[in-house]
Prior knowledge:
The structure holds two protein chains of two kinds. Chain A is globular. By secondary structure, chain A is α+β, with helices and mostly antiparallel strands. Chain A is built from four helices and nine strands, in the order βββαβββββααβα. The termini of chain A are far apart. Chain B has helices at 5-8, 26-34, 40-44, 53-58, 79-88, 112-123, 176-187, 209-216, 257-268, 278-287, 314-319, 325-334, and strands at residues 62-66, 69-74, 90-94, 99-105, 139-145, 151-158, 166-171, 191-195, 199-205, 228-233, 236-241, 250-256, 273-275, 338-345, 356-358, 364-374, 379-387, 396-401, 404-411. In chain B, the strands form four sheets. Chain B has a six-stranded mixed β-sheet with strand order 10-11-12-9-3-13. In chain B, helix 5 crosses helix 10. Classes of the chains: A alpha+beta, B alpha+beta. Chains A and B meet through helix 1, strand 4, strand 6 and strand 7 of A and helix 1 and helix 5 of B.
Amino acid sequence: MTKKFTKEHEWLLIEGDVATIGITPHAAEQLGDVVFVELPEVGASFDKDGDMAVVESVKAASDVYAPVSGEVVEANSAITDEPGKVNEDPAGAAWFVKLKLTNTSELDGLMDEQQYKEYLETL
Amino acid sequence: MNDRSMHAASVRVFTDLSAWEPLVTETAAASNLASNTTSTDEASSALKRTPLYNLHLARGAKTAPFAGYDMPIQYPDGVLKEHLHTRAAAGLFDVSHMGQAWLRLKDESLTGDAAHKALAAALETLAPAEFQKLKPGGVRYSVFLNEDGGILDDFMTTRPTDNDGSLFLVVNAACKDDDFALLNEKLGDVARLEIAEDRALIALQGPKAAGIVDRLFPGAAAQKFMTMTVGAYEGDDVYVSRCGYTGEDGFELSVPAARAESLANTLLDDSDVALIGLGARDSLRLEAGLCLYGHDLDETTSPIEGNIGFAIGKRRRTEGGFPGADRIQKELAEGPARLRVGVKPEGRAPAREGVKIVDAAGTEIGVITSGGFGPSAEGPVAMGYVDGAKAEDGAEIGLLVRGKTIPARIVPMPFVPHTYYRG
């Protein structure tokens, strides 16, 4: 099980060929109070960087991109029912989707936890 | 928290703080929505600060440019809690960026009612309220109009209790330079404009506001909505106006800049008072159905289209005598081509500014001008303009959000009842 990060402030927890994807505490903090989440249907497929989900805070609507290509095998209805969970536990219970990866080599371009921390410092 | 971090974040509109910038022009609106690359760092050197700027930073505010000022958008509690706190207790807002000015009659031979009427009549050539009817201490909402009856700004006018021949104006920050230029140009012969740059403006809003303000300014709690009295704080005059921009009972306190931080801290000593940023100010006014100039009103909209007919005095509807009277009287008689209405989306997805409105048949009939999540309404709320013929309460409409049509209804506003104190 490895954890990866993107410059777009998403995290991926990779188990075999399935990645659980969410947004980082930094992203949740920047968004502010989340009031609406729209997730894709199970079975939907995305290319890397495709519009995968929508998260809206009191301030603005934001797109969440697919960090890697894959097919949605599970979507977390807990956060569509209670969007505020995204602020409470962005790195854990408030994951967005699980993607079955179609191109595992895309993972190579992502950051590990240490690299992401260093990246945050540069912002 | 540093503004540059916003640029790199995951999402297209992640420079969300820029959404609070009042949109002076349509072009600015488009670029705000499309781009997130504006460097607030570059802009910040030119930004002005209110007398409470240091207090905001000390209390953990996130700030962003708003109407040329570096303004607090939110404090550590966040927009949602700040909003709910205002409706439950009392919220303190720094609105010192707004323009405050005295308009004074030049002809000093007139006194009392005659002086008031002469000055009020002059202001009535620019705005359609019945300023002449103002009683001492009365506050009126109105709009400056262009020759086409479009709104240049909305503003408050107060007739002071003991200073006939003077009117006190509070205008929007983004428009103040233009407003003051207009007043000088059009009324310069009869009146002198004194811009009150040395005054801050602090709003205290919410059900606990009256009790708190009354302890500092005895008698304030008995004051009615849309009236002003003069109180004293540390020996200086404070203009205590019972009005606001949240739909709640509350006050706006005009205080000399040098006393602003002391007054704010004194108010904040009360555990019921919390600082509230412009983020929650926007969601509060949206739920209250109140317009934000540059978004819900602009130079193309008339007060009839804007559904703020109360800004036009009864006598003036027939008499006219203000810029654009022809258009406005025609709209009063025949109905406006478009009308600002409340919009309640079904479900949870907010519909924001710029979202297109369609009728049941899918024909485009208008556009959302303000929209978001209403923390007290516990769901999405919005307002926008629709074709006059389609502006019917209860009408089923659709909102085009991200390529989907979200069902919605036209509804009466406010979304949360006003709690103004009318005595």
